[in-house]
Write a structure and sequence with these properties.
Helix content: 25-40%
Number of domains: 2
CATH class of the largest domain: Alpha Beta
Distance between the termini: 19 Å
CATH superfamily of the largest domain: Thiolase/Chalcone synthase
Number of helices: 11
Low-confidence stretches: 1-5
CATH architecture of the largest domain: 3-Layer(aba) Sandwich
Order of helices and strands: EEHEEEEHEHHEHEHEHEHEHHHEEEE
């Protein structure tokens, strides 16, 4: 990815979210400051597994509409995606005919799976056709641009944002709506349970007693906009998506490469793409799933990136707050980075009995001030699909100002 000129820089001008913390970016931020959410029992029958909890959005927060798209019944994931998309577009002030030219790029791992499972629980064995959530969001928000669905497992949301970044830089669109959405899935829970990678207590990244991850559901949507376009309409951005990079371990179907070489490559590439160096990073939002190997590999990779400063550089362990939102995780992390930059504050982490092999800085007693201009976001997935993103502040709070 090449670094663009000022007018094609990608600014974050709108945010939308539904999660266990509530509806909308304000409720989300306040929930992070208050210590995050709590896991709840999944309201599905036949959970014949050790771990039966998730970080769940209140079912009353999930809109009943749209209930169908192109004749196909819709579950919670696409409905939450539409609601978060409407929030983000309204937050950015993108309305009416302006929405027609806004492409939708959406990451999802299991998408509409909850509907299929509920239908089978009710004795209905016919398979409901799958409808890409990106198409649903595009249709419901008035977009007539080509939608893109991204399925890179747990890094899908991060990949969706990097695709949107490329579209802005290349001049393919002035505004892109990107993010991720996931609902409840018994199939996903069962798969992680069989892998021995599901924690029955809570999501406990970097904790010596961690026993795997715990899922969360929800949707996070972000409006990315070319700086020149945002400036022309007087938009006030949250932040800039300043750089991104991908890499692949090509090591194992599920386990990360213990060397962490490709994780370091993604972080290094993202900083280079943003024209920054390690000293410019004031906070890291790690992938940090709570699985034993992942947390150790990422911790060691961060030491390779930041050296002795790793013990002072604040990490914000997001999944301990909202669970692992799988295909939406990268989008939630990027949305969180934008809010950290808006408020110049890193929320306090949940209490953790820290594993000495995870020698990273997790401020726990109180929020800390963001002391450098950039936030690094890491998002990884099965198959070794890694993405790192750099989110920075915007000088003066107005679109297109100098960096």
């Amino acid at each position: 990815m090449s670094t663009p000129g000022g007018d094609r820089r990608a600014l974050i001008t709108g945010l939308g979210a539904i999660s266990c913390l509530g509806v909308g970016p304000t409720a989300y931020w306040n929930g992070l400051l208050a210590g995050g959410g709590e896991p709840a029992e999944v309201p599905f029958p036949h959970l014949n597994m050790r771990a039966t909890k998730m970080y769940l959005a209140d079912r009353a927060w999930i809109p009943a509409e749209p209930s169908r798209h192109a004749g196909v019944e819709l579950g919670g994931s696409p409905r939450m995606a539409v609601a978060a998309a409407e929030q983000a577009l309204a937050d950015a002030g993108v309305a009416g005919e302006a929405r027609a030219a806004v492409p939708v790029v959406l990451g999802a791992e299991l998408g509409n799976a909850d509907l299929q499972e509920l239908r089978r629980d009710a004795g209905r064995t016919a398979w409901t056709p799958l409808t890409p959530a990106a198409a649903v969001v595009a249709a419901r928000t008035g977009s007539r641009a080509a939608p893109i669905s991204v399925g890179n497992a747990c890094s899908a949301g991060g990949y969706a944002l990097t695709i949107a970044l490329d579209m802005i830089r290349a001049g393919e669109a002035d505004t892109v709506l990107a993010g991720g959405a996931e609902g409840i899935t018994r199939a996903g829970m069962g798969a992680f349970d069989r892998l021995g990678a599901a924690d029955p207590v809570r999501c406990r990244p970097f904790d010596r007693n961690r026993a795997g991850t715990m899922f969360g559901d929800g949707a996070a949507m972000i409006v990315l906009e070319a700086a020149g376009h945002a400036r022309a309409r007087g938009a006030t951005p949250y932040a800039e998506l300043a750089g991104a990079a991908w890499s692949c371990d090509a090591y194992h179907p599920t386990a990360p490469d213990p060397s962490g070489d490709q994780v370091v490559r993604a972080m290094t590439g993202a900083l280079a793409d943003a024209g920054l160096d390690a000293a410019d990073v004031g906070c890291v939002i790690p992938h940090g799933t709570g699985t034993p190997l992942n947390d150790v590999v990422e911790s060691r990779a961060l030491h390779r990136m930041f050296g002795a400063r790793t013990r002072e550089l604040p990490l914000f362990s997001l999944k301990a707050m909202i669970g692992h939102t799988t295909g939406a995780a990268g989008a939630f992390a990027c949305l969180t980075a934008a809010l950290v930059l808006r408020h110049r504050t890193v929320p306090a982490n949940r209490p953790v009995d820290q594993d000495p092999e995870c020698d990273v800085h997790l401020p726990r007693e109180r929020p800390v001030r963001l002391e450098a201009p950039a936030v690094l976001v890491n998002t990884y997935a099965f198959g070794g699909n890694n993405a790192s993103l750099i989110v920075t502040g915007v000088t003066g709070g107005r679109a297109g100002g100098p960096r």
